[in-house]
Specification:
Layout (H helix, E strand, L loop, with lengths): L2 E5 L4 H12 L3 E6 L6 H6 L2 E4 L5 H8 L4 E4 L9 H20 L6 E5 L2 H4 L19 H14 L7 E6 L1 E3 L5 H12 L2 E4 L8 E3 H14 L17 E4 L7 H8 L10 E4 L1 H18 L7 H7 L9 H7 L7 H14 L5
Parallel strand pairs: 1-2, 1-4, 2-3, 4-5, 5-6, 6-10, 7-9, 8-11
Helix pairs in contact: 1-8, 3-4, 4-6
């Protein structure tokens, strides 16, 4: 039985990961900022460890004696690039430094994002060997987090997983899209030409992460001085690449909305709506996931990434096709009365 630390356990990916690790008999620590808000993780059987990514003392205590650290904590949206960098880059650097300070450093499984790699050319599939070229502030901050961890690759076993769009039980981001379709009977889509997207069901991602932590390729020590090395990096995606518009078509019948027009919003309108949302968020001093940074990601050529490396090296295969996974997610939402 290994001792595992999970940062970002309160997120929906972290919760699914913790449930799986506990079910498989691992001793799990959840690194949390507010234990009172994390009682559900304790009820599942995880040990709560209070701390913050900018507190080196609490981080060293949290990683002491662990075999694997899954780093999921991070910001998806913020009002400034500095805020994203402070958490996604600096927080990752602090964690890697704390791991490197251990007499027997645990493996660090860093969960990044396909946004860190940047988009693909339409009609092509991006692979891990392609040099990263992020277009959004979020993507730049996630790549900076990867680079911060890679600086310690000569002292810690490090593997990086870049998931696509993650969905499944406990996720509220995709839930909001499904609620829009169900309530208003239409599906708004930014831009005229929808980019193919990379997707993955959360249980499949968890399986990939565990495989990568246990016997995945490690980032080489020489990567710290290289311009870019794909060794130790895996895309967490499935072979199918439906667009955001396709997502509406794939869910309309399960949502009992057979007539559900797709409303394409031209780029200028999408930018304007995102700017308004961002301005309101800044006024409220609370970041909104619908912002100009997400429009930058939405209007690219393609986000299609290849699952081949994970399949060939880790034997990873999604347990079911994407359509079945979407149907199962909607069924879960209905069971929890998040959808009707």
């Amino acid at each position: 039985m290994s001792v595992v630390l999970v940062t970002g356990g309160n997120g929906f990916i972290g919760r699914n990961l913790i449930e799986t690790l506990l079910f498989r008999g691992h001793q799990v620590r959840a690194f949390v900022r507010n234990p009172k808000a994390s009682v559900i993780l304790q009820d599942l059987g995880a040990e709560l460890v209070k701390g913050e990514l900018n507190d080196p003392v609490s981080m060293r205590e949290a990683v002491a004696g662990t075999d694997v650290v899954y780093h999921l904590a991070g910001l998806v949206a913020a009002n400034t690039l500095d805020e994203l960098m402070h958490v996604n880059r600096d927080g990752t650097a602090n964690l890697a430094e704390a791991i490197a300070a251990q007499p027997n450093p645990p493996t660090l499984l860093l969960v990044s994002s396909v946004a860190a790699s940047g988009p693909a050319v339409r009609g092509q599939i991006r692979i891990e060997a392609d040099p990263p070229a992020p277009v959004s502030n979020y993507g730049k901050s996630k790549l900076a987090g990867e680079q911060a961890a890679i600086k310690f690759a000569d002292r810690i076993p490090l593997t990086i997983v870049r998931p696509g769009v993650v969905f499944g039980p406990h996720d509220r981001a995709v839930l909001q899209v499904l609620k829009t379709i169900q309530r208003f009977r239409f599906h708004p889509v930014p831009g005229w030409r929808n980019p193919p997207l990379s997707w993955i069901y959360v249980a499949d991602l968890v399986e990939l992460m565990i495989k990568a932590a246990e016997h995945g390729e490690r980032v080489p020590a020489s990567a710290a001085d290289a311009e870019y090395s794909p060794r130790g990096v895996y895309f967490g995606v499935v072979p199918e690449h439906p667009t955001y518009a396709d997502f509406g078509d794939m869910t309309r019948y399960t949502l009992h909305r057979p007539f559900m027009p797709i409303i394409y919003c031209p780029g200028p309108i999408s930018w304007f709506a995102a700017s308004v949302s961002e301005t309101i968020a800044k006024w409220k001093k609370k970041a909104d996931v619908f912002n100009r940074d997400k429009i930058r990601e939405a209007l690219v050529e393609s986000w299609a990434c290849s699952p081949d490396k994970a399949r060939q090296q880790l034997g990873f295969e999604p347990a079911a096709p994407l359509q079945e996974r979407l149907n199962a997610t909607i069924a879960w939402y209905r069971e929890k009365r998040w959808l009707w």
